[in-house]
Amino acid sequence: MDLTRHINSILKARHGNPHEVLGPHMVDETLVIRAFLPEAREAWVVKRDADTGKRVKTPMQRIHREGFHEAVFDGVTDPFDYTIRLVTHWDERREFHDPYAMPPVLSDFDHHLLGEGTHYKNYEKMGSHVRIINGVRGVHFAVWAPNARSVSVIGEFNGWDARRHLMRQPGASGIWELFIPGLAEGTLYKFEILSRFNNYRQQKSDPFAFFCEVRPKTANIVYSLKNKHVWQDAEWMERRRTANWFDEPVSIYEVHAGSWMRVPEEGNRFLTWNELAERLLPHVKNLGCTHIQLLPVSEHPLDASWGYQTIGYYAPTSRFGRPEDFMNFVDQCHQQGIGVLVDWVPAHFPKDAHGLGFFDGTCLYEHADPRKGEHRDWGTLIFNYGRNEVKNYLIGNALYWLDKYHIDGLRVDAVASMLYLDYSKQPGDWVPNQFGGNENLEAIAFLKTFNEVVHQYHPGVLTIAEESTSWPAVSRPTYLNGLGFSMKWNMGWMHDTLDYFSQDPIFRKYHANKLTFSMLYAFTENFVLPFSHDEVVHGKRSLLDKMPGDMWQKFANFRTLLAYMFCHPGKKLLFAGFEFGQWNEWNFDQSLDWHLTQYEPHAKLTRFVQALNWTYRTEPALHQVDFEWQGFEWIDFSDYDSSVIAFLRRGRNPEDILICVFNCTPVPRHDYRIGVPRGGYYAELLNTDSGEFWGSNVGNAGGKHADHWKCHGREWSLSLTLPPLGALILKPV
User: Fold this and answer.
1) Are the C-beta atoms of residues 577 and 542 closer than 8 Å to each other?
2) Is 579 a catalytic site residue?
3) Which CATH class is domain 260-288+318-472?
């Protein structure tokens, strides 16, 4: 062995197999122990004598001025357990187990599964984990960097010196590992990677880190999730396992945890997860929503990205507390009967130098060709779904959130950008697939596998696609050639509906198709009807402010809009602030305008949303048959001049029927006749114009008897008073 060459390679932090030099070795049938100890003035190898049990010190000789030490044990041929004791140049005494005397931790089977892309609990092996190896407690590190010349663990414990803890690559999987005795939970660390190519060297965050420093700091924190939180949601988890969410009410309250509410008295700081549990959950429960959907909670460097440009896919952001605080938040939700959905972003990731991009000096997680690997509009990189390890990384991440944090579902962001190779790209700026098309075949295969694996491992969870095109069968099973999602956001319905209600009522008769067109495709997918954060930013105005007219008309329009949403087939999603009528656009950097709730119109709007959710949850006709045509039937959509539409909703039981009528002009309409399926008394379950909701109290005195009078092709009909800019929900009693 050319020891000088090896030493020089370690001194330059370029050695790819430090165990070849450091630790115990047989040299000419003599045991030699080497260590790189630049801080040591003196050093000894300490072992316990087998006969006397006493600890015996053997001096180490300095063999290089930079701090390489060596101890020679003549006549010893068998390795033994030992520690290294030293005195530093500043007279500090230390003793520790030698990391280069420790065996590999990952098995050949681990390497095989990780390379094959089927190690779905990869997070239990990769990253940093507190372990006991050969009776010694420490931290095991593992990172995938197949094109690295060398990889080092750096941190406070070694002065961020890449020479001190070089890792080894024991197999052909490209995974580097090292067990460092004596390290404990709370240790700050990163990986420093030297590429085989162009001497590229960069400090990188651990892709599998469970916890990170608060931005703008970027170090990872060794963190164990075991025994951090005692879950008390067994009842919820068992119910979820057998739940059929398709037939149940799903009313989602979308929240950005960083701006729902802040503490202006303390520098406008965020609420912690524990504070959010105390304040947010009672509010959501009081509203009657069934689920909370959180904008991405994984670690991200830039607040302005809202979490959609993720660095730490396995780390809940440290902005709001520790991982166990987020566990407690989810647990509290479940104990109060509220599901938790999380936005998940497998479509792209940011270019920050410490992130996944150009990870080992090559395009490891992303495509090398920028025509396939970059979203120039967003300034982000696209995952290479054709690599087994990348697919494994993402699918393992999805399972991690469901497993470790009991998340009830993942809303997958920007699915359309994954499906199309030419998404938001100009001709010539994208590469067709092998058949000449614009479909991203690798991303399609990934999404199918993701949905299959998630539903296999966690029955009862929801996967929801934000997919804005007409891609077929997004929410159909993969065995029917679908993508396998549980549900899909209905972006077309959202745009058409907002466009209609943004029109001055005098012109709405020319846009009636905006309300009715959605029924042509309403049952082609399992749709969620979203009024999300995306509709109230970037100059789009708040939802209430989109409504035309004076203040009274804006509120009346808004109530009718929400009633139309809750009566239309599909599950529901409302962004935080809609429930009390936020006037301003959403600003991620400040609290919602909660002061508005002290004013009557806003307080009564909240009361209306409560009543709407209560009606939705208690009436099977509004939620049981959302995804089949049998749950909906038009009564009339032809009265364009009056801008009135009417339809009925049905539950599984033929007796569960509701009549829904919408008057989209500010003109009260008296003696307006609506055909109904049978005679009897029809109770007015909900009137959006009720004075209780800040309306004008135009209505039908609680209900009407049906007349045996043909109308709309039916034998029976109701003569109703339709409130201005109002909606009625009636139920046969």
Assistant:
1) yes
2) no
3) alpha beta
In the chain, domain spans: 23-97, 108-221, 260-288+318-472, 628-732
Query: Which residue is catalytic, options 70, 177, 206, 413?
Result: 413
pTM (two decimals): 0.94
Q: Which residues contact 211 (CB under 8 A, 6 or more apart)?
A: 220, 221, 223, 315, 316, 318, 322, 323
Name the amino acid, one letter, at 324.
E
- Consecutive sets of 10 residues in the chain, 733 residues long: mean pLDDT of each? 86 92 89 94 89 86 92 86 94 94 93 92 96 95 96 96 94 92 97 92 97 95 95 96 95 97 92 97 97 97 94 96 97 97 97 95 94 91 96 97 97 96 92 95 97 96 96 96 97 97 96 95 97 94 95 98 98 97 95 96 98 97 96 96 97 94 97 96 97 96 95 96 98 95
Q: Within 13 Å of residue 120, how many CA atoms lie on the same side as its CB?
A: 14
At the topology level, CATH places domain 108-221 in Immunoglobulin-like (2.60.40)
Are 508 and 553 in contact by the 8 Å Cβ rule? The answer is no
**CB within 8 Å of 225: residues ≥ 6 apart:** 210, 323, 324, 404
Q: Residue 559 is encoded by which pair of tokens?
A: 């109530």
Dihedral angle over CA of 710, 711, 716, 722, nearest 10: -140
What's the rounded Cα separation, in Å, for the pair 45 and 36? 13
Q: In what order do the strands lie in the sheet with 348-350?
A: 348-350, 380-382, 374-375
Residue with tokens 């004075």: 691
Length of the chain in residues, anyone?
Answer: 733
Given 299, 343, 466, 626, the catalytic residue: 466
- In words, the CATH class of domain 23-97 is mainly beta
413 flagged as catalytic: yes
How distant is the alpha carbon of residue 533 from its chain centre?
Answer: 15
Side chain identity at residue 601, one-letter code = P
**Contacts by 263-267, CB closer than 8 A, 24 or more apart:** 264/591
Decide: helix, strand or coil at residue 22.
Answer: coil
Q: Which of 61, 177, 58, 21 is nearest to 111 (CA)?
A: 177
Query: 226 is written with which tokens?
Result: 């075991």
Please give the Cα distance from 440 to 48 (Å, whole number): 62
CATH superfamily, domain at 628-732: Golgi alpha-mannosidase II (2.60.40.1180)
| Same-fold call for 23-97 versus 628-732 | yes
Structure tokens at 548: 């035309």
